[in-house]
Amino acid sequence: MADLEVGDPAPQFDLPRDGGGSLSLAASAGKPVVLYFYPQDDTTSCTQEAISFSRLKPEFEKAGAVVIGLSPDSAKKHDKFKSKYDLTIDLAADEERKVIEAYNLWVEKSMYGRRYMGVERATFLIGSDGRIAKIWRKVRVKGHAEAVLEAVRAL
Questions:
Q1: Distance between alpha carbon 51 and the CA centroid of its chain, in Å?
Q2: I need a surface site. Which of 69, 82, 100, 155 has the fewest CB within 10 A?
Q3: pTM exceeds 0.70, yes or no
Q4: Which are the catalytic amino acids?
Q5: What is the pLDDT of residues 41-60, one digit of tens each?
């Protein structure tokens, strides 16, 4: 599967979410969407990233954007994660990895010489027109949420 590029239509989704119900890209039509993919709830880097986006949520809202975190964890696990760290952003549960695969982020990874499949940490800024405006791949967490906020403000 080819990687998505800036200007491509963002793949649509409708997934279970924390707190019940569902999250869909269509529900945010007409607004910029920050869709960030992360490997797993309650791990060091994923927690730092979620806390950073939660801390900046009022600024994203002021800029008119919606922030959605997405991982293969269940909605129930997302509920525990949000509660433990007082997270304010929306979290989507992609247990079947359909959206992760649609964004071509189910990749081979390597840690301590062991190879395995997992989610590539990446962020997609989707413009109000439903097209991808900016992509960050292989994200390093420190300063990332701030960089994404600046890109949202520049739209």
A1: 13
A2: 155
A3: yes
A4: 46
A5: 999 999 999 999 999 999 99
